Amino acid sequence: MEKTKRKILFVTPPYHCGVVEVAGTWPPLGLLYLGAQAEKAGWTAEVYDAMSLQHDFKRIEKHLRKTEYDVIATTSITPTYPDSALLLALGKKVRPECTTLIGGVHPTFSFRTIFAEPDCPVDYIIGGEGEHAMYQFLADFEDIEKRHKTANLMWAEDGKPKVNPLRPFCQDLDSLPVAWHLLDWDLYKYYVIEDSRLGAVSTSRGCNHDCTFCSQQKFWEKTWRGRSAKSVVDELEYLNKTYKTNVFLFTDEFPTKERDRWEELLDRVIASDLDIYILMETRVEDIVRDEDIMGKYRKAGVIHIYVGAEATDQDTLDMIKKDVTIAESRRAIELIAEYGMISETSFVLGFPDETEESIEKTFKLAQEFNPDFAHFLAITPWPYAEFYKEVKDDIEVHDLRMYNLIEPIVKPKNMTLRQIDLAIIQCYGKFYMPKMLEFMKQSDPFRRNYLVKSAKLIMKSSFLIKKFARVGMNPKTMMEKVMGRKAPAGMKHK
To answer: What domains appear along the chain, each with residue ranges and CATH number?
Structure first.
């Protein structure tokens, strides 16, 4: 009689914040890589995307009670950790004999704090790059001595953390399978484009830059590895043909690092003649570098590019080791617009030396750059980032759920957190109100519809509504007032 397979249940934490979620439901790509390793180890895998399903803990418990699992696993960045921990505790409550497992950036670096928590719900952490460690952990699961030899594994023994050495990063990213069949594909949509099905593809891992506030360069040890252009495009074609996916998010922070590889990738997408849209982010200096091939970006289907401008002056950029100039940021946004693509960037407020004058300077720079979309974020010191040490004495908020780039955490020397919060609200309001009329005047129907729909979604986001309510304003009402103004002839109903 064939032995019943063990089962691992991957669950996303039900954490929600910011404007990202109002634009779409995003596939949990990392869990699909891990799911493939679980199946390779002979286990049954399930992905339960509670976050995208908008399930609260009551509904999550209902789901857990109707399914079986030997291991319940989740992932975490800093603001999601409290909910990830509650999720694992619930998993143990429903099935006390199960094993709980977590991975991701926050557990990798904060394992001592996690294991020191009273009634810690975490049995094991897989730190760093998780695929090969996940395979080894599950393949050796029945033998606890062998299980505890798994590379990257962390656990507590007699109240003390045990930490195994990290294995080297996988150098052949093309070799890592993805368990796409574990998704309910009807769930994933990009709301800006009608009849869309949204996929997520990673073309590379890591970043070799030194930004002090960033978690990625620390997680990947300032290394970068790229998949082959052929592998990426083969995956795009597979998802498009198999699951009818027509909008793709490139999830990596730095897909353009190697110019030759990136241009080959664009050429292959163009040659494939796929009718797709691509959303991506990269560094501003690469956009400037690629001025001569920006036409290929657009022809390949790239429609939306996020670049990080981050700060108001060169001194601040240098302080956080952003390794970019204001002139490059300005030129990158100009190039994205020149080739008909949507530009998006962010401006960070709340540095220790912030003043009302520096905030006004930041806002004027945002107006001068004139990206299609700007986000005004609060500087957030991850507990393990280099920047955290520099501002530790100025941190006034210790609830990790608030470490989401939205709520002010660091108190400037000459301002209060309340003043920073109000400044963020005011910057959003002052930036987007005139933008709506600008969007409505766009001559390109696709671009006009994309911009108007995106702006409406942003103004409907729960985080903005809550922030504006603090000062007696309603962004939806403000938007309706702007949209109610007389639009240019022929545009109102398009």
So the answer is: 7-163 (3.40.50.2300), 189-431 (3.20.20.70)
